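Quick question, first post here. What does this chain look like in 3D?
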Amino acid sequence: MPPAPSPRRWLMIALVFLATVINYLDRQTLSVLAPVLREEFGMTNVDYSRIVSAFMVAYTIMNGVSGPMIDRLGTKLGYAICVAWWSAASIVQALSFNALTLGTSRFLLGMGEAGNWPAGIRVVAEWFPARERSLASGIFNSGSVIGAFFAPYLIVKLSAAFGWRMAFVFPSLLGLLWILPWLL
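> Answer (accepted):
Ran it through. Tokens below.
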């Protein structure tokens, strides 16, 4: 008979849920701030589409790379690296001064954010018995909806109060803070 599942599995899936919320806050910041950034940087529709595409290209490539990386490094370290990477990339977005620098930072963001899904799925596999894996997956996946739902409100409020650059920094700080309980 297999050992009873650890009650800590619920804490683990709560952390994955929170990382997914942060992932989607970071991801949605550009679309919420697009009108402001397009005006400030004088971006055309083509410029904006290239910035969005830069994220998607990196995300697509790194989906195939982050899974094996997490398998090699383990979930604890691999996930922490992904969150640290995307948090740093989001801070770099705040330093953007034109469409090229914004596109480059979005590419870096896509590289890091791609690791959320392989890491989350691995947490589910490591911590949950087969009979609970669909529930655990549903819980962590719902973080994407929660993050996307609250992003417009939070980003607009942050941007209005502190400027658009802080709207990129805030989710980054959440990601960096997330790493502490994750590593513990």
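The helical segments are 9-41, 45-73, 75-94, 99-113, 116-127, 133-162, 164-183.
The longest helix spans residues 9-41.
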